[in-house]
Structures are given as structure tokens and as C-alpha cells.
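G., the chain you wanted modeled:
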Amino acid sequence: MKYEIVLFDIDDTLLTLESDGTWRKMFGRLLNEVGVQATDQNYQDFIDNNHRLWSQAENDEISTEAVFDNRFDLPFIQDCGVSAAELDIRFQELQQHESTPTKGALECCQKMSQSLDLYTASNGKQKTQATRVQGSPLAPYLQKVFTSENVQTLKPKPEFFAKILREVGVADKQKVLMVGDTYGEDVLGAHNFGIDSCWLNLKQEATPESNLCTYQVPDLGKLPALIM
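Predicted structure as C-alpha cells:
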């Protein structure tokens, strides 16, 4: 078998988040608690702001904490009497209860854990992501939860992957596969570090011309047959 280690992204790879409307429901619940209407446009503004801030963090323009402190800093929320940072703390608490596996994720982890060591490799807060994983049926099949917070650097930076491999004691990059739904973070990040990748293409997006992913699947249930 070619691989010994498989690294999985969490959000919309192992566990659903944006892909099945989970975040939209959480957003609506949070805004309802502070008396603000959660319109589709308000939600899109939040998503756009979140993506913009994460891009800045990945480019070392702001800290990761600044992402969480400011992604709710939006005009329609400013008069609710609760700070953006406080809203995000509550949002993280809500997210900790969301542990629904994506399609095929349980089958994938069950099969692959029989001969491979499985880990998560995700951006985000350690407590939030670890709680989600531990509350899911995937927990028995995953060796450890790695996030940007406990690794202390962001994916897709090469050092993110390097620190994880040092932690798990693997020096041979050819023995490692990264699996994730975000082409820029998961596929390009893995490519730039020198490890293989599998793009979980949930939305059936067009493959970029560069096509740097080693594998591509529409759901994780298809992955074991490709690598085992």
C-alpha cells in the first residue's frame, strides 16, 4: 500500500458545515438571539467577510484571532448590543454541537482505519473542532485532531503540514495523503509541501487547468477503492 498516513480536513470534508446549510441555520439562530433578522444577504455578507479575513490571515496580514474577533463586525449587527468577538464565542459554542458526517465519511474512515493512520488537519479553534469530532461517529477511527490552533500555523502553509508530520513521526512524504474540499488550501497546500492530495469535490466544480490533485472524488465513500 502506498500510504501510511491520511490527513483529513474537517469542515465540509469529514463533517458538514456550509455544504448542507448547517452554518446558515446556526447564523439564523445566533442573530435571532440578539434580535437581528438573518436575511440571505446578511448571511452572504458574513460568509464573504469570513473568507476575506481568512485570506488575510493566510497571507500573514492579520492574526487568526483577528479572524474570529472580527468576522461578525458587520453593519447589520453593530447595534445589537453584543460585540463581534462575543458573538463569535457564541457561534463557536453552537458549532461544537454540529457533528454530522459528510456523505461516505463514516464508511471511508471505517475502511481506511483498518490499515492506515487517520488524522485531521484543519484550520480553526482546537476546542471547537475537537469537540465536533469527538461527538461524531468518526471519533473511534481518528488518531488525533490537528488544527491550526494547536499546530500554531495555518493551512496551507508548508510548516502546517511539516509540524503534523513531525508530530506523528513520518518523514517520508510519499506515505502521506491530504484530503479536503478546498482546492486552494487542501490541494495546493499539499502540492506545495510535496505530498499527494485528494480533492473532495462536493459541488462538482470544474477542475482547474493545473489539476494538481492526485485524486478527485464526489464523496468520501469513493476514496478507499482508489488508494487501498
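The two ends are 6 Å apart (CA to CA).

Shout if anything looks off.
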